[in-house]
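assembly run, all chains below
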Amino acid sequence: MGIITILWEKWVEFRRDFYKITLAAMIAPLMYLVVFGMGIQTMSHGEPYLNFLIPGVVALTTMNGSFNAIAQNLNVQRLYEKAFDQVMISPTPLWQFIAGQIIGGSLRGLYAGGIILILTAPIETGLIFNGWSFFIMFLNGAVFSAIGVVVSFLAKNHADVPRFSNYIIMPMAYLCNTFFSTEKIPGILGDFVAVLPLSQTSQIIRGISAGGSANFAGIGILIGYLTIFTAGASWFIYKKKNL
Amino acid sequence: MIETKNLTKTFDSFTAVDNLNLKIESGEFFGLLGPNGAGKTTTISLLSTLLLPTKGEILINGQPLTRNRPDLKRKISVITQEYSMRQDMNMDEIMEYQGRLYFMPKKEIRRRTEELLDFCDLLKFRKRTVRKLSGGMKRKLMVCRALLTDPEILLLDEPTAGMDALSRRQMWNLLRKLNGKNLTILLTTHYMEEAQSLCGRVALMDHGKLEEINTPSGLIDSLGKYTVDEMLPEETKSHYFHHRQEAIEFLSGLTGQAALRETTLEDVFVERAGRHLSPS
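ok done. output:
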């Protein structure tokens, strides 16, 4: 099965860069938690702000972990190392390559999010993280891995992926229900931000962590995004004449 | 058998390959020659589905080749002009990745890797990452990788570029041996002596178009087996003759510096394409 081959390739990379990957996954989210959660002690909806913040930071960490694991790596393989040619030429069905990238990216996102959960475990917040939380983290990772595949195929040079990250991923990290509720963003912009995948993920994880059940409408939206971007990635790999 | 029918590839308004019609028989050693920008690499990229044609089709044993035909892709191995490998993987990992992509059993991957790395004198470097290999070693590793999967068709895009003379000769011997086992080989090269020594037939390409197909000796015969080089103050002018006696007579009539030699494939190409080839 080609998916296993791609996961093996991701594992080789993970094993080699274990310390770098782990540290990179920890630093930014820890800073957010320390500065916004513990440094600036505030309350939100009658609870410590940290209770609002942790689910948001977990969501954005899975997003960053998955997107960065796929977009940059695939971009380098395609445009510079040309190692992507090896896959294109091989008999591995290309849909399996896409699926492998998405699953591999999700696992990297899940790993990054899991680290945050472990690091915040000693803080007595009373937040609940269960199987549904991990499923949502995985699904969020899958959405952003699929976006990462599309972005890497669209990139024309090495700088395009960081550029996309600056223009799209970073604003999402701050605005999508992570540090504050999207209800505070006025008008149509608020409605738009609220339906973005990271907003949905933050909302669902936060709901579960507060003792609620998973929001199936939100899960549906995430699956919708995953379908669209997976279809986009498949179109590129099967149909684009000059990949 | 590889067949291309009206194969065309355009990039915006530039036509890289223009209505290419080729038929390469099973077990043939076929050379694709041309100057820079002739369309050789684009043709290899089309044959390996890295690029999709703007028009026309590619048939492998009569079946249309697309990105969605793993059964046909299984038969093909490619050595690209650039080092297309993960820089941070070591040799063993590069080979295992290739084997896995071709669904080879793990035991078989290990056995073949050992055999091929040993044959190419790379065994002692197997744990070294690609980033730390010399150009020649990378090229050899690409050959090992391509042969790992036991292909029926081998596409080689300037496989000896950057190799020293000894490694090049070793590569030629290896390719001859493989062709002897009925492997179909399509080779692009800038080195005319390489094509002359290895290929059963060659095609001359220029500006994306097929100029001529023939055996190397057929091409040489069509120009004349003997060449007299006349050294003029600004250039060397070559004159071609079918018979040695004619060439000697012409030579004796010249007043300046001149030399008689056998015509090479490079002469043919220079005459056909109107420009001198140099390795790049």
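The interface with chain B takes residues 2, 4-5, 8-9, 12-13, 16, 77, 81-94, 237-243 of chain A (CB under 8 Å).

The two ends of chain A are 24 Å apart (CA to CA).

not gonna interpret more than that til we talk
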